[in-house]
């Protein structure tokens, strides 16, 4: 192949010119009459260095944004825009007219945006290397400039003078005006404020420089510092510094859509690395304000950091994450700041139809909606607070903290979940099997009125006898066509409980021949099914084997005990099959699967969600041990047997199966019940097995939930392999609990609770069963109602034998 050096230099220069993108206009002044059109491979006006460009950027699959952006990096980051509230359609044109006006019009010529200036002496436009677009006169006086009309960003050499402001965009992908603004007030105070969205007026400040009477302008200098200065230039408030020189980094400071003011850097010298890759995305400096947007917004008007009826958690990237409480869903999942709505009929205040029993309470720890309360009570218990909210038709949520109870009504505002909040939110939702009686009553009244009206008309008409004959004929046809199938569709219900008795053929059909397997173990395989008689309701069908050889009545007796359980932290048993050799259980379907896949998979729950799951599991076990009609010992508590519903609520499964299995049924090679790593020591000794075996297993599970680490790996053969329980206790004893939750920012910010929960777990895994607390006391300790004492070494019982 011929070398490039064989070709003359002018020829090579010609080739380079041909390869240079023709979309960009040659840098320099932009003459009157020049224009750009919104289209693919958009042309643009570049600055002399090529660092910045002015032109059109297409936003998603929508319209075009007239903007200024960083042009030498892969991420064409917008720093200014003209028409964020009104994107331009394809074919729109921005023109520097002969009269010196900069105007954006749609393809029909209708004006979309215009640069407002008082002078008609514009001679040219220019895109400057500072990122400033200017309209200038012949004597280089700037008659209009983008720096004087900022959107959400300031750049080095830019000053934001009193009463200037930045307005955040609405979302990451929407450039319309959003919910926050950064303002130098006329009184000299620099503030971050929420806006009375969609109006331009402001609500209240959630951050302030506290410089009333002295502040004048925000300066972004070439050394990379952002600060508030007085009129004489002295620095009053340093906002961001130590960013590095603007010669080495592209820099921008932006009020982002989440309400946080951040300073970003991007290296200039290595635009593309030697490996051919671009650098990582813009790097934020740690000096952003405010430091915790979730907790810093507490205002009487507006929704807070997230939308109404939602709550905010701070992510590891310091960005707010918005969530709906259980019983609520996002109004628009693609726009979470619109807030959440109740997905149930609210409680009626009609005394003729009291609905107290139709509602239940869901709990969220460390959660609050400040300023939404309408009643406040002192020196009360959590149970009193819970019942007070259930009995009050206005109450949507009650907050219980340190013996105080606050009732709150819809809409809830300023929601946040963080360790500093403390207490517990008691959220009232309608029970799943409950309907709104007033609505039904209204419907019945309407039906009754309709029948009365129809009867009056018919009785006064000569066709009444004909109508009766037609009705009789209809009833006869209906009887023959519909009565028989309904008889065939009827099913047996176990007396005393709402458990259906299925035939094997029904379940074979529901599971499509037991085709889709959800999981399996040593005593059962679980299949996904859909019940045709219940509008294709999804179910989990568990085929049991190695069953106790006992009569049908004994089998049904044990099922009856399980069927009578009713708790939000238990998976509901819907029915069974006891036909021939087939022993099958039918459960409600849990879409998110087991806790094991959450804890040890790719998307683990955050710290607060994990604490809710741990508390829910404890409450479920407390119910099985002490509150249901027949005491049930689970015997196999582990992450695989804790399922997670749509609201990340813990649901214990496989409870009560211990009595249904053969006495030698085992999950280990030791001939004992349970799973290796979770089995209580008394299984190995000649000691009675009590509910304390579940307490031990819960202690191991609690450590796994705290650490997001497995207690036991069956395939690991290394004798030095760490045992989670031993390691966690050593970390607690050596005061190194930060190692237990390393790389978990939320947990690191809540170390007091981490310590308490580890202490509770250590109490649970005591080798002496008598030292282990009951599950009732575990729940009380986790809720903060009972003090957690210093636990002894878990293995001290063995050393004393």
TrEMBL record:
Keyword Cytoplasm appears in the UniProt entry: no
Keywords recorded for this protein, A-Z: ATP-binding, Disulfide bond, EGF-like domain, Glycoprotein, Kinase, Lectin, Membrane, Nucleotide-binding, Receptor, Serine/threonine-protein kinase, Signal, Transferase, Transmembrane, Transmembrane helix
Transmembrane feature ranges: 451-478
Topology of the protein relative to the lipid bilayer: Single-pass type I membrane protein
One Gene Ontology molecular-function label: carbohydrate binding
Subcellular location(s) per record: Membrane
Binding site for ATP: 543
Keyword Nucleus among UniProt keywords: no
Family, similarity comment: Belongs to the protein kinase superfamily. Ser/Thr protein kinase family.
PANTHER family: G-TYPE LECTIN S-RECEPTOR-LIKE SERINE/THREONINE-PROTEIN KINASE SD2-5, G-TYPE LECTIN S-RECEPTOR-LIKE SERINE_THREONINE-PROTEIN KINASE LECRK1
Protein name as catalogued: Receptor-like serine/threonine-protein kinase
Species: Morella rubra
